[in-house]
């Protein structure tokens, strides 16, 4: 009976899914985005200093805050929006928080958290009155259909970089890495190949299997001394396990975590006092802009991938997943982390068949289960966790078939949306390029009357923003 009630609540029959598929999808999404538990504190701990606490303790406090914010936001997504999307503190915004606002401008980290908190409250209000949904529905059709492919290329680009398959190069910016001589890259490429083979043969759970198999392969390579262990696994973990044994080492990692986050939680309140209104406003609005368009792009792209969009290219009841993002951002600032957003890695779970809010519920449960094992997330090497991004990137590019490439406005707007995302490392910038190009090309073709007034206003506002931003007038 309990299973039937769950199925009815989440609409399993309507979405043609079942509890086994949803659980697998949720675990897949969590594995794909779990890197944030380590990456977010690694970035924010550069900016956050708390008297009488070590760097390790601060790192662990931020990791706990990251998990709590992810759980709250994803629970809202699961139980209120009933969509299979996972949420967590967003990459890019955490870097802006640390390196631009705190380190660059010298603004106290408490004040930066206060800006995130105010942004979250503003999002809650705008979402409640339908303003965010209205603006997102102004996005031109080719942009909506190109977002999925753009995010796919972006994911693939990120994954290949994290695996050392693509590396930086001063003259050309990027180039192919020394794959054949880099054990890290070799394991990553083999993991990608293995996972793509499984996926092409319709093996259920192919991404999870690929991640776990690649992780085991890396640890076996380290144990067999086929290369220096530090080349394929975390050196500290390997040393601990080698000296104390795996079980003892795991236990030591678990019991030494700093679970008391009271020195971090609530710090935003202090940040609301003694602030410069102009600087605070600019910081808050920049958080607002990037989060708004990142979330919009992710929702539309992932929704397109899961076939959730209607005939007009709109996501029904979009205000509900947007509210999950707004609540998560507000709560995240309260416990001590940067802006929370919907994760593009949700595509991994959707690829595994996740279609309802139960997938998000499983993601939230996995984050809760990760709490006692915060220090163990690094057991999964980067080349194993990031292979999911490469595989999903390949899969998501299939969305380009929905674009009418014979129409100049669609072709130009769609191409810019897809290519600008990875080139600028920003979903927001890719969206903006497509949104700006569409009405201009339509008008040049003599189809100006087909462009909605709101689309012109949005394009002009974006042009003004980028003139100010790239001209150095604002952050």
Overall description:
With 475 residues, the protein is mainly α. The protein has one domain. The chain is built from 22 helices and four strands. The protein has helices at 2-10, 19-33, 36-44, 55-81, 93-104, 109-128, 131-137, 141-162, 183-200, 206-223, 235-244, 246-255, 267-271, 277-305, 319-335, 346-351, 357-370, 382-385, 387-396, 408-424, 427-444, 453-470, and strands spanning 87-89, 166-169, 173-176, 340-342. The chain is globular. The mean pLDDT is 86. One of its GO terms (molecular function) is purine nucleobase transmembrane transporter activity.
Give me some keywords for this one.
two-stranded antiparallel ribbon, about 475 residues, about 5% strand, 22 helices
